[in-house]
Write a structure and sequence with these properties.
Two copies of one chain form a homodimer. By secondary structure, the first copy, chain A, is an alpha/beta fold. Chain A folds into two domains: 150 residues, Isopropylmalate Dehydrogenase; 175 residues, Isopropylmalate Dehydrogenase. Chain A contains 14 helices and eleven strands. An eleven-stranded mixed beta sheet of chain A has the order 3-2-1-4-11-10-5-6-9-7-8, with helices on both faces. The radius of gyration of chain A is 21 Å and the shape is globular. The C terminus of chain A is likely disordered. Chains A and B meet through helix 8, helix 9, helix 10 and helix 11 of A and helix 8, helix 9, helix 10 and helix 11 of B. Chains A, B: Pathway: Lipid metabolism; phospholipid metabolism. Chains A, B: Catalyzes the reversible formation of acyl-phosphate (acyl-PO(4)) from acyl-[acyl-carrier-protein] (acyl-ACP). This enzyme utilizes acyl-ACP as fatty acyl donor, but not acyl-CoA. Chains A, B: Belongs to the PlsX family. Chains A, B: InterPro entries: FA_synthesis, Phospholipid_synth_PlsX-like.
Chain lengths: 349, 349
């Protein structure tokens, strides 16, 4: 029995998308239960023998500041969903709500694992090998030290080991060249630390990788600071959207090209499936004493279902224990810095 | 009469690609002259009334360190080409050689413009509006202060104004959110400086932009540090290559899909032209007392020709004077930092 707590109010669409996704998820996973968190009147239409409504009176909107989410909306669906994990009522929480608020609440309610200064956001991206490259951090931490990058590498390895059959996934350090001497000082020191961790058996470190290696699939995991990761992710989304738009435009240019599009419909459909970002929805918030998954805010029913599926897989494959075991093993290298002033500043209540 | 100095030995392919590109360029530009720089025996096959060989005995390889390029190969084709600009023999130099060496040599030979601490690499990328977004820095500077980002914004504005009809191009500051409070400390201070520059009439500052805005074409120019810019560029190259590969695979899956590909050939060809990265080849090295353009190392004849074309346009449109005039105008905001230890370290000879 795997139990997930779902923030049904979060995201751009709220219950209109989350509820149908929950129903489909329950139908596909006979051993799963869901705690549907939100305003009871908004969830009243839903009924399923393996689902239970957990009431929450407030909703964190996509525009709410972290401060509002933390201090003014203490009974938000997002917070109550995370609380279910803290209280042992659920093994993982899933939300499509605003990332900053989710990270801050998760960190405040669940706390970080010993040895981890900062939680990170990790998500798989499709690669040319037909597999996925897991990239972290994707935006939780704008300034990182080499210690943080090492922590990301250890946590990312635990994530990929839990979600795939790859017990020793390869780790690449995102840089602007493959040579050891490339990059800024933090990156160079991170390279040294990652090599030490590899020597100690904590990691399968490949070395430096460049931006193009993410989609090439050179390594299973790519580690970077949250600023760089966020820019890389969003730049990719922008490019994919532009290319998709160009392809649509070319095929709808005139009646002849429209007929051509019909003729090649199966080919285009198959292509579209392969590059469909929605399949990869569901980012893990790693480094917390509980599992939290973040869906894209604009997720549709299919995409939100993918995020539920990822949370379910993580819970069943003991991601939490794996992260903690790997962190414990790497402990001699994790010198635990003095904490994170930027995130700390938002946590006191 | 516009004269370009071409490093004919640089890049992955050397004269095999550069010479045919030069011939085509000369045929298309009746008022242009070229100085073909390289080993005379490698260039002996070429003859054209508006081309002249300038001998250089050495070649900087793609793997040569900056130090080797600077100190051991003093008669390299790359250096001699830049020297032609310094000596007033040519208005711009073009090379497909290794970026680090080209930047270091250009900086050493030409020196930076007053008010500029660090030269930057700027290149146009296609956007969904059917125009181009100019991004800088793309990798010359791994650590940047807010002053550097301001300098990039001013130089990028001069570049776009020189190359397009847009006299007041819009500038976006690459960040992980649109709100002013987003980003790290350098980015926040850079935002303040850019707003001051806009108030003083030095810039048309749009505000923060995110990764997806590059390909959306939200602004004409996107400013970022060289680490982030390089990762964004290479991530895009990797994604474009993956998507192209998937499309090819789908259309060559079986005899039926191959026939389908033939049927839609004109549509696919038109699509391919629109996303063809080669059209955008030719990055400007900005902030030097002379014009230098960098071609992609793997450029083919068409792509190298595009880089020649960009250098030619820049020279004809007085890019150098425009950069200097804009820098002079923005001078009160450019407080000139103490110089760049990292680049300085490689320049003494």
């Amino acid at each position: 029995m795997t139990i997930l707590a779902v923030d049904c109010m979060g995201g751009d669409h709220g219950p209109r998308v989350t509820l149908p996704a929950c129903r489909r998820f329950l139908d596909a996973h006979p051993d799963a239960r869901l705690l549907l968190v939100g305003q009871p009147e908004a969830l009243a239409s839903f009924s399923h023998p393996r689902a239970k409504v957990v009431p929450a009176t407030e909703v964190v909107t996509m525009d709410d500041s972290v401060e509002t989410a933390m201090r003014r909306k203490k009974d938000s669906s997002m917070r109550v969903a995370i609380r279910q994990v803290k209280d042992g009522e659920a093994q993982a929480a899933v939300s499509a709500g605003n990332t900053g608020a989710l990270m801050a609440l998760a960190r405040y309610v669940l706390k970080t694992v010993d040895g981890i200064d900062r939680p990170a956001i990790a998500s798989p991206l499709p690669n040319a090998k037909g597999k996925a490259t897991t990239v972290l951090d994707l935006g939780a931490n704008v300034d990182c030290t080499e210690q943080h990058l090492l922590q990301f590498a250890v946590m990312g390895s635990a994530l990929v080991a839990a979600m795939t059959s790859e017990e020793q996934p390869t780790v690449g350090l995102l840089n602007i060249g493959e040579e050891i001497i490339k990059g800024n000082e933090v990156i160079k020191r991170a390279g040294e630390l990652l090599r030490s961790a590899a020597a100690a058996g904590d990691l399968n470190f490949h070395g430096n990788v460049e931006g193009n290696d993410i989609f090439k699939g050179t390594t299973d995991i790519v580690v970077c600071d949250g600023f760089v990761g966020n820019v890389a992710l969003k730049t990719s989304e922008g490019l994919a959207s532009m290319i998709g738009g160009f392809l649509r435009e070319e095929f709808s240019r005139n009646p002849l090209t429209k007929i051509a599009a019909l003729a090649v419909y199966p080919v285009l459909a198959s292509f579209k499936t392969r590059v469909d970002y929605r399949r990869y929805n569901g980012a893990a918030l790693l480094g917390l004493r509980g599992l939290v998954f973040k869906s894209h805010g604009s997720a549709d029913e299919f995409a939100f279902g993918q995020a539920l599926g990822r949370a379910y897989d993580a819970a069943r494959n003991n991601l939490l224990d794996r992260v903690q075991a790997r962190i414990a093993h790497a402990r001699p290298l994790l010198v635990g810095s003095a904490g994170d002033a930027q995130l700390e500043a938002i946590t006191p209540e």
